[in-house]
Fold this sequence. Notes:
By secondary structure, the protein is of the alpha/beta class. It has a single domain, classed as P-loop containing nucleotide triphosphate hydrolases (Rossmann fold, 3-Layer(aba) Sandwich). It has helices at about 40-50, 70-80, 95-100, 110-115, 120-130, 150-160, 180-195, 205-210, 235-240, and strands at about 1-10, 15-25, 30-35, 55-60, 65, 80-85, 165-170, 200, 215-220, 225-230. A 6-stranded mixed β-sheet has the order 6-7-8-3-9-10, with helices on both faces. Strand 7, helix 7 (about 180-195) and strand 8 form a beta-alpha-beta unit. It is globular, with a radius of gyration of 18 Å. Residues about 245-250 have low confidence and may be disordered.
Amino acid sequence: MIKFENVTKQYPNGFVGLKNINLEIEQGEFVAIIGLSGAGKSTLIRTINRMHDITGGKLTVDGEDVMSMQGKQLRRFRRKIGMIFQSFNLITRTTVLKNVLTAFVPDLPFWRAFFGIYTKQEKLKAMECLDKVGILDKSFVRADQLSGGQQQRVALARTLAQNPQIILADEPVAALDPITAKQVMDDFRHINKDMNISVLINIHHVDLALQYADRVIGIRAGEIVYDGPSADVNDEILAKIYKGGAQEGGI
């Protein structure tokens, strides 16, 4: 379970990205986070894996205090949390399979990581993950020869290879056309339902949020203004989430 208790995030310039957030997310939930640009959506999900440190309150994952972790403990913790970005973050000049195999690098001896030496078991695991997102046939194609949707699926397969309990996705379909975006969201839903992996998606597309997520969290100016079933979201709630403009300097 992910638990926020009066969590605040203030940046060095004085901007407050999150204000007294209280939130609990159970294992296996599919949660969409919506709101204006700069409302605090990215900040919220990036505090979970310590990409951003909170400045007040308490954040725990499975009972572990996230801010108390250091060194190896923090690295082990981050292995349980996959992160998907809008920009895919692939090594474009190498094959799809080698991109997925990089998920194992943090656990490899230095010499194997340096020379790119992987076991048969690791290669089979990587191919299994590619199969789960429907692009096993692209294993030996260079990543830069794939479409945007295919590249995002490679990124998702790479994340699956680290056996995460949680997947955080920061605008994963923002750069994709509507048809491809739905295909990628189908992958997220399949992974969530079949593998019981918690999925938290920061997303601008409200229609996709309502279609795929079980739960929606609406953020405005660093505060949660809605938290409930996606089926209950109506025009009044959307107006509350989206009224006004984006925060200056928001993330």
